[in-house]
Design brief:
single chain; alpha/beta; Rossmann fold; 6-phosphogluconate dehydrogenase C-terminal fold; eight-stranded mixed sheet; about 15% strand; globular
Length: about 280
C-alpha cells in the first residue's frame, strides 16, 4: 500500500505516523508546497520521501488531501484529474458541503471519499504531528452514496486501523454539527484571548494570576489562523447562526448581572450544567 499525503501539517503528519505504526501503509510519500515543512517531515521520519505533486499522486494507491479547506478546493479537483480508476482519494477537511459540491460532477467523483477525522491540537506543522492523536476519536465519512463502495471500504479500513470510530453523515448535517461543537469553541477562545490581551496592556500581572481554568479555556486560541479562517469562511452560514445564539446568551448573562438578578444568573448556570449528560 502506497499512500501519498498532501499537506504535512498536524493532521497529515499525524495520519502518516499512525498508518505506518499500524502497518496500514508500506510506503508513505509526502507532498507539501512549503519546502521547510516538506524537508522537516522527511527528516523526522513522518514520510519516506518527498515528491512533486503530480508524481506523488500518480504513484499512490491512496491519496490523502490534508490541506486547509480553501486550498483543498484547488487541490482536490487537480488530484481527481490525475488519478486512474483504481486509485482512491480522501480529503480530511473540517468543512464538507462546499468541497463536495465543487467536485460533484467530476468524472472521477466516485473515487473520492469525503472524510473528517475529529481530532487535533492547537499546534500546527509537521513538528506538531503525534502518534495516537486519533485513538478512540470519531472519523466521519460523508455522502458515501456518491463514492465507489471499494473506495469507501479502503478509507474506512484506514481509519479503523487508526482505532477510530466510524460514523456516516451527509455533508450538510456535518457542517451544522461541526459549527456547534468545533467552530464556536475556537471563536470563543479567540475572543477570550483578544479580551485578555487587551487588558494585559495595562495589567502586566494578569497572566501571572491566570489559573488552570483560563489555560484550558483559551488553549484553542493558539490554533493556526491559516487553518481556521478558511473553515469559518467556507462554513460561514452555519457559524453565523451559532454565533447569533451564543451572543444571545452572553447578552442575557450581561443583562442579568447588570440587574443584580442573581437567581437568573444561578438558573442559567444550572441549566448549562445539563451538558454533563453529554460530556463526561
Amino acid at each position: 500500500m502506497v499512500v501519498t499525503v498532501i499537506g504535512l501539517g498536524l493532521i497529515g503528519g499525524s495520519t502518516a505516523i499512525d498508518i505506518r505504526r499500524h502497518k496500514f501503509a508500506d510506503h508513505i510519500i509526502g507532498v507539501d508546497n512549503d519546502p521547510i515543512n516538506a524537508s522537516g517531515a522527511q527528516h523526522i521520519g513522518i514520510v519516506d520521501e518527498i515528491c512533486e505533486f503530480e508524481d506523488g499522486v500518480r504513484r499512490a494507491d491512496l491519496i490523502l488531501v490534508a490541506v486547509p479547506v480553501n486550498a483543498a478546493l484547488k487541490v482536490l479537483p487537480a488530484v481527481l484529474d490525475i488519478i486512474n480508476d483504481n486509485q482512491v482519494v480522501a480529503d480530511m477537511c473540517s468543512v464538507k458541503s462546499k468541497l463536495g459540491d465543487w467536485v460533484k460532477y467530476h468524472p472521477k467523483r466516485q473515487r473520492y471519499v469525503a472524510s473528517h477525522p475529529m481530532a487535533g491540537t492547537e499546534y500546527s506543522g509537521p513538528w506538531a504531528a503525534k502518534a495516537n492523536m486519533f485513538e478512540g476519536k470519531v472519523a466521519i465519512l460523508c455522502d458515501t452514496e456518491e463514492s465507489d463502495v471499494a473506495a469507501v471500504s479502503l478509507v474506512r479500513r484506514m481509519y479503523e486501523a487508526m482505532n477510530m470510530r466510524i460514523i456516516y453523515m451527509n455533508s450538510a448535517n456535518h457542517d451544522v454539527h461541526t459549527a456547534y461543537v468545533s467552530a464556536i469553541s475556537h471563536i470563543s477562545s479567540f475572543a477570550l484571548a483578544l479580551t485578555v490581551l487587551d487588558k494585559e496592556k495595562n495589567e502586566k500581572h494578569i497572566f501571572d494570576l491566570a489559573s488552570g481554568g483560563f489555560d484550558s479555556t483559551v488553549r484553542l486560541a493558539k490554533s493556526s489562523a491559516a487553518m481556521w479562517q478558511p473553515i469559518f469562511e467556507q462554513n460561514k452560514d452555519n457559524v453565523l447562526i451559532v454565533l447569533d445564539t451564543y451572543i444571545k446568551y452572553l447578552q442575557e448573562f450581561k443583562k442579568n448581572l447588570e440587574a443584580d438578578d442573581n437567581k437568573a444568573v444561578y438558573d442559567m448556570i444550572d441549566q448549562a450544567n445539563k451538558i454533563r449528560r453529554v460530556l463526561k
